[in-house]
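Example record used in the benchmark description.
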Amino acid sequence: MLKGAFGTDALLTAPALSSLGDLYLIEAKYEAAESLYQQSMKSEEDALGAEHPQVATSLRSLATLYCRKGKYAQAKKMLERSLALDQKGLWLCAIH
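Model output (structure tokens):
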């Protein structure tokens, strides 16, 4: 459905996928939310690269989901990667 509305532009579909994932997270539909968050992150990684700071937002969404599911080790991994990307992004801003 989203690809029909936005085409195949990953940078347009990723936020929509993430927002829909947020809705499912609120409704405690964790499997659906996880799938959407992962699709969003993959779209961002494909379009921008896995080390791009924008990917950190998707990682934090997944971490929140994993906390809700009691998967704390997975949440920690997502948050650690997110922090590393955030720090990299801040460093890149500092050199411009």
